[in-house]
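Deliverable D4.2, example record:
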Amino acid sequence: MTLCEAATAGPWFKTDGIHALYVSTNACMDVIAECEVARDATFIAEARTGWPHAIRRAMAAEAEVERLRAVLEQMDDRKNPMMPRSQMARIAKEALDYATRKG
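Output generated by the structure prediction step:
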């Protein structure tokens, strides 16, 4: 994520040049990259916002996995034999409801 945040602030967009496509910022049309192929310029421009978004989603998903692992750990009969099955079912349902609401 640090790599994405260190890049020139966006949004980035591509413009048609005489011999190349440029990916530029709104401020002063700074050239970020020159590309001979339009689809490469589109990829670079979209990556500026797409990668940070994807990384944030992945980090949130990893945190959710850890949270659900902790819930399952609580439900382990070997570690908590006194917990009634109905309470285990309620915990599992709450975890599933929470996960599907966020998704």
